[in-house]
Amino acid sequence: MSTTLLPSWREGVRRGQKRLSEVIRVSGAYLGVAVLACVVMVLTVPVLRDQAVTLHQAALKALMPDGIETMLPAIGPSGLVPELRSVDLAEVPHRRLLEVKPEPSTEPVERTPPVGLLGNVPLPKIEAAMANFELTEQQLKALEHYIARKYRVARQVVDRIVESALVTGADLKVNPVLILAVMSVESRFNPYAESGAGAQGLMQVMTRVHTDKFEKLGTDGVAAFHPEINIRVGAQILSDCIRRRGSESAGLRCYVGATGPDDGGYAQKVQAEQRRMALAAKIPLN
C-alpha cells in the first residue's frame, strides 16, 4: 500500500513546487514592473514639476498687471485672511510720503537718526516710555535683534519701528510688544503691504473706514503708508478695541473684524508671537 501511495505523493509535491515557482515568477514580474515604474517616476516627476513651474510663472508674468509683484497671505482688520498685494509705488511717490509729518512735538531737539520715512523719535520720549514699561536698554536691543533676524528687516529700520511702537504704546497705554506682534502677523513689517480688501501699511489699517483718525493727525489717506502714522492709527484702533471688549484677546478679535468668538485663530497667533518676542528679549508679560 505504501508503495502505491509513494508515486502519488511525489506527484503532488512536484505539482506544488511547480505552482510555487509559477507564483514566484509572476510575483517577480509584477515586482519588476513596480520597481521600473518607481524609477521612471523618480526620474521624470522633478522634470515635469520644473516644467510646470516654469509654465506657471510664464503665465503669471503674462497675465499680471504692472506694479503687482507678489501675493502674500496675511490677516488684517478688514477680515480673517485677506490677501496682500504689493502697492504700485508710482501712486504713492516717495516725495509725497516725505511730506506727511507725524503730529508736531515740542520735545527737545535731541532725536534718534531718521531712516527713510521713519522719523527721528525724541530721545526723552523713548526714555520715558522705557521707564513706563520698565524696559532696559538690553531688553530693547534684544527685541530689535529678534525682529530684524526673524523678519529679515534692516536693523536701522527695526530700531525706529520699535521706538515708534514703544512711544505710541506708552501714549495709548497699550503693550508695545503686542503692537509689534500685530505688525508681524499683519504685514511682516512691510510698510507698503495692502490687502485685497484695502487694508494698508504695517498694521493693515482700513484707511477708508478710519479716515477720522487720520484727520485728527492732520493727514490724508496717503499717510496709511507712512510707518509712524500707520503705527499710531493702528495702535489707536487696537486700544479702542481692547477698551471696549475688556481684554487683549477680545480686543484682537475686534481688531481683526470678528463679531463673535471665532476669529480664525488670529488672537492666538498674535499672542503666540507676542510671547516669543517677550521671551527672546526677556520681557515679562503681565
How many structurally independent domains?
Answer: 2
- Overall shape: it is elongated
Q: What would CATH call the class of the largest domain?
A: Mainly Alpha
In the CATH hierarchy, what is the architecture of the largest domain at level 2? Orthogonal Bundle
- Strand content is under 5%
Q: What summary fits the major beta sheet? A: 3 strands, antiparallel
CATH topology name of the largest domain, in short, is Lysozyme
Counted beta strands? 5
Structural class: mainly alpha
Strand arrangement, major sheet: 1-2-3
Q: Unreliable segments (pLDDT under 50, ≥5 consecutive)?
A: 63-82
Gyration radius, rounded: 31 Å
Note the gap between the termini. Answer: 96 Å
Number of helices: 10
Verbal overview:
- The protein has 10 helices and 5 strands; from the N terminus they run H-E-E-H-H-H-H-H-E-E-E-H-H-H-H.
- It has 286 residues and is mainly alpha-helical.
- The chain folds into 2 domains: 1-63; 71-281, Lysozyme (Orthogonal Bundle).
- The strands form 2 sheets. The protein has a 3-stranded antiparallel β-sheet with strand order 1-2-3, with no helix packed on it. Strands 4-5 form a two-stranded antiparallel sheet.
- Helix 4 crosses helix 10, helix 5 (155-172) packs parallel to helix 8 (227-245) and helix 6 packs across helix 10 (266-281).
- It is elongated, with a radius of gyration of 31 Å.
Topology:
Layout: H1 2-63, E1 71-73, E2 83-85, H2 94-99, H3 123-133, H4 137-151, H5 155-172, H6 176-186, E3 194-195, E4 199-200, E5 205-206, H7 211-216, H8 227-245, H9 248-255, H10 266-281
Antiparallel strand pairs: 1-2, 2-3, 4-5
Helix pairs in contact: 3-5, 4-5, 4-10, 5-6, 5-8, 6-10, 8-9, 9-10
